[in-house]
Write a structure and sequence with these properties.
single chain, 81 residues, alpha+beta, two-stranded antiparallel ribbon, 3 helices, 17% strand
């Protein structure tokens, strides 16, 4: 017998509000752990993408006074630069 995953069922589950809350909870725990171990300032962000909920933990970036400078700093952090 061959296992055949129900891709449409999995995809629909990954878009539910419950899955989103779980993704946000896990990202929050990662941020808390990182703050505790490094003492830095960490933020989380989550969004429902085309296929599933996604989350990111962003930390230890230089804060700027303008929105464009903050956006550039966040993008550099996400790229690992």
């Amino acid at each position: 017998m061959r296992f055949r995953p129900n891709h449409s069922g999995i995809n629909s589950f990954m878009k539910t509000p419950e899955a989103g809350r779980e993704v946000e909870r896990i990202a929050g725990r990662i941020a808390e752990s990182a703050e505790a171990s490094t003492g830095g300032d960490f933020r989380t962000d989550s969004a429902l993408g085309a296929k599933r909920w996604r989350a990111a933990v962003i930390g230890n970036y230089v804060k700027h006074n303008d929105a464009e400078g903050t956006r550039a700093a966040l993008l550099r952090g996400m790229d690992g630069a």
